[in-house]
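Practice problem 4.
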């Protein structure tokens, strides 16, 4: 019975602030418990543990019960974000009849955000979505070698570009999710990769969300972390990318999961909260002066980490690492 109750309730639901039409608004975030990401059944991404929260037995009636729970908490927020453990547009994960019901219930919102892998984004699937939809794509990196070896994403940058073009042609907005420091990149290489990726994604417009890797349970990243072969990125690295990347007219933002914890983006522990507050302010203002300039002793330790090149410097090096016996 406990398992049945779990499947009848969303994985998570909370309220936060975000931007809609240039204004800060109340936002509801809904994470549905679904049968899981299709890509995860082929091994999935190296850093992603969200498939653990999925369930292959969930049916449409249970999804509708989850939606009912969400509607009980909905208080007219103009911005609603709906996430699954995979892709909103994947019919194997969300039946079209359920998608239609969800869209009808949130038809009056000002802005709706959903996420999907590129292979499910096309003119047909987009035609079923309202024009006030923002489609989010987890691009993660603009380097195909990083996508293949560090992330194991299962698609290439050309797939992202095609989907981004489809979204623009449909008159919808795009939000691109990027990773800071996927496995097998040194701190310096991770900064360079994230900076290049921000600039690449920004050229396709919309919003760019930079997500520092957090160590999720049951993942390759957790295995490396437990062995001492991986450290989550420094907050200083996040600040460096946000300060120096050429974002053009795109909005650059970050809301780190687990920020300030051992498994999340962190510094020394003394300055973490203060610097993360600056990142949050910048995500709304886009004013670089909101980002911390550094008045903590750990700044010198971070700078040394950039010189040391811990672990592997490039994603291409993972081919050698795999030959040494690590299965990816």
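Answer key:
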């Amino acid at each position: 019975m406990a398992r049945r109750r779990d499947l009848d309730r969303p994985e998570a639901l909370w309220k936060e602030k975000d931007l809609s039409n240039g204004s800060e608004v109340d936002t509801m975030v809904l994470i549905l418990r679904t049968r899981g990401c299709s890509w995860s059944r082929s091994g999935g991404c190296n850093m992603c543990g969200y498939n653990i929260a999925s369930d292959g037995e969930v049916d449409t009636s249970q999804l509708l019960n989850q939606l009912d729970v969400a509607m009980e908490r909905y208080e007219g927020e103009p911005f609603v974000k709906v996430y699954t453990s995979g892709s909103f547009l994947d019919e194997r994960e969300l039946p079209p009849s359920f998608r239609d019901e969800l869209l009808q219930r949130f038809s009056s919102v000002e802005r709706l955000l959903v996420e999907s892998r590129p292979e499910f984004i096309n003119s047909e699937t987009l035609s079923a979505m309202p024009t006030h939809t923002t489609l989010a794509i987890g691009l993660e990196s603009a380097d195909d070698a990083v996508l293949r070896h560090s992330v194991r994403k299962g698609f290439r940058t050309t797939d992202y570009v095609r989907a981004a073009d489809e979204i623009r042609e449909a008159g919808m907005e795009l939000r691109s999710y990027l990773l800071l420091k996927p496995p097998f990149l040194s701190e310096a290489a991770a900064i360079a990769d994230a900076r290049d990726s921000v600039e690449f994604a920004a050229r396709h417009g919309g919003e760019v969300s930079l997500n520092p890797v957090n160590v999720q349970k049951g993942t390759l990243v957790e295995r490396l972390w437990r062995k001492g072969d991986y450290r989550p990125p420094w907050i200083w690295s996040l600040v460096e990318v946000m300060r120096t990347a050429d974002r053009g007219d795109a909005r650059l933002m970050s809301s780190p999961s687990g920020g300030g914890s051992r498994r999340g983006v962190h510094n020394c522990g003394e300055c973490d909260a203060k610097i993360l507050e600056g990142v949050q302010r910048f995500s709304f203002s886009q004013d670089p002066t909101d980002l911390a300039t550094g008045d903590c002793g750990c700044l010198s330790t971070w700078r040394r980490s950039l010189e040391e090149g811990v672990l592997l410097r490039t994603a291409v090096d993972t081919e050698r690492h795999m030959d040494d016996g690590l299965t990816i």
